[in-house]
Fold this protein.
Amino acid sequence: MTTDTHAPDAGPTDAMVADVFQRGCTSRHVLESVTGRWGVLTVAGLRDGAVRFNALRRRIDGVSEKMLAQTLQSLERDGIVVREVRATIPPHVEYSLTPLGRRVADRLTALIDVLEDAVDEVTASQRAYDALRGA
């Protein structure tokens, strides 16, 4: 009896299936980076094209230089953002979205649009909740 070492693939193994609900899944880490406090605003802020660091920092009101730098670095590592050093005098750095980053940004901005459109509804709900709890 011979053994066929080229048997058809039986399908994906547990190691190959992405599942954000599993602790060690890469997709969970990326989800945390993208949806963290500054990740959403950073990705959305880059949606319209390449931006220099300080321009992005001004756009994202309240983010510190340190937090923006860490967020950009994390998003770059995950393949969401690309950092490009421009060989100008003086040299400067621009950040932009990768194709994956653009797909993510499209979905995030859709969520942002829903939330911005619902501000009155959310505010009314918060007031009602606070009134019931004596806040």
Notes: The chain has a mean pLDDT of 89. Helices lie at 26-35, 39-45, 53-59, 65-77, 99-117, 119-133. The radius of gyration is 21 Å. The longest strand covers residues 81-86.
